[in-house]
Amino acid sequence: MGDKWAILFSHPADYTPVCTTELSRVAQLMPDFEKRGVKPIALSCDTVESHKGWIEDIKSYAKLPSFDYPIIADDKRELALKLNMLDKDELTAEGIPLTCRAVFVIDDKKKLRLSILYPATTGRNFDEILRVIDSLKLTQTKSVATPADWKQGGQCMVLPTVQAADVPKLFPDGIETIQVPSGKGYLRITAQPRD
């Protein structure tokens, strides 16, 4: 991981339809992850040999020339157990819990910044995960929060902790306070701060 961010995402099993679409999508989005300084890492409770064969199917499905991120082989489920990634409701034919569709976003200081758990039957939206990473990186260094449905370049909310005296320095383009019936000036918007 080094000084980069990472996304660790687990899968119920190799050679399964939803997992194949997800790993394909992440492979297609590699330039977007690289642009953001984020390293994707998948985890599945199958062997390295199983992963190698499955990667060929993933490449074929998505018409990919290469597959450029690692899949952790956690066939003893040690890491999945340690990270609480096992789904006690979804079991193999042998009654062993499957790995759930967990997503962990870890920042450059090795701090967990986001944890999402999806059911085995629901594929993840990696465009949304990229949007969240953009928000996390922006709000880590700027005195803003991102509102519902925010997208890169959209307006941001000024944090309630920002004092009026600090606004000109922090937001040279200004802010707008939205008037609400309560009369409280807590809804303050601004253009997305630039680096």
Describe what this molecule looks like in 3D:
The chain has 195 residues and is α+β, with helices and mostly antiparallel strands. It is 30% helix and 25% strand. It contains 6 helices and 11 strands. Strands 3-2-1-6-7 form a 5-stranded mixed beta sheet. A 4-stranded antiparallel beta sheet has the order 8-9-11-10, with helices on one face. Strands 4-5 form a two-stranded antiparallel ribbon. The two termini are 24 Å apart.
List keywords for this structure.
single chain, 195 residues, alpha+beta, five-stranded mixed beta sheet, four-stranded antiparallel beta sheet, 6 helices, 11 strands, elongated
Write a brief structural summary.
The protein contains six helices and eleven strands. With 195 residues, the chain is an alpha+beta fold.
How many H/I helical runs? 6
Beta-strand portion reads 25-35%
The shape, in one word, is: elongated
Write down how many β-strands occur, each being a DSSP E stretch of 2 or more residues: 11
- Sheet with the most strands: spatial strand order: 3-2-1-6-7
Radius of gyration: 20 Å
String of helices and strands:
EHHEHEHEEEEHEEHEE
- What's the mean pLDDT score? 92
By secondary-structure content and strand pairing, the structural class works out as: alpha+beta
Helix content: 25-40%
Ordered list of secondary-structure elements with their pairings:
Layout lengths: L4 E7 L5 H12 L1 H6 L2 E7 L3 H15 L8 E3 L4 H5 L3 E6 L5 E3 L1 E6 L5 E7 L7 H16 L2 E2 L10 E3 L8 H4 L5 E2 L10 E3 L5
